[in-house]
Amino acid sequence: MECRVGCAACCIAPSISSPMPKMPEGKPAGVPCAHLTDDFRCELFGKKERPRVCGGFTPEPEFCGNSREEAIKILSDLEG
């Protein structure tokens, strides 16, 4: 499976405890990452400043579902 273009559920739904540029306290669950661009891409992708946890997200049917909305719900439910 490949990432769904324009999804970015993994950049919104989960919390990230690692400090990063623009978000020194990390990212709360349900809040879009400050590094998420208008076209739903990561401006830290491929850079050393990108949190390690972000590199661990891989597209999988059980987490991504059949739509962006479903992916956000699945990942949000895992947070709660």
TrEMBL record:
It comes from the Bacteria. Pfam families: CxxCxxCC. PANTHER family: UPF0153 PROTEIN YEIW. This is YkgJ family cysteine cluster protein.
